[in-house]
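Q: What structure does this chain adopt?
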Amino acid sequence: MSTTLLDNFYKETSSTFSETNQENFISEIAINPEHPVFKGHFEQVPIAPGVCLIQVIKEILAEKFKKELFMSHGDNIKFLAMINPRETTNLSISFSVKQSEGFLDVTASYTHAGISYVKFKGKFKVLN
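A:
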């Protein structure tokens, strides 16, 4: 599989995913506030880059489904609040996944303490 951010930008701390629970599950993650990306985005007031947050979704799905994935569609991606890793390190990502021929149709959202940070709706093409 390709290079990942796992154990560097974030770490998954728990998940409700299982062989019998693949359609709707929650992953808990912890963001590393010391990751080098925050020195450039931005050192005084760090903000988790949107591209990294989408990459986390992809990596969790790839690990859970044991597939190499490529995001083919980002139908609706909304960044609703900034994630400052010095203030908010732990986040929940709720997943709704439908498998179709060669694709994962995904709806995902990041939340913490009742605040919605990111809403994602898109498709990942299965490469292997």
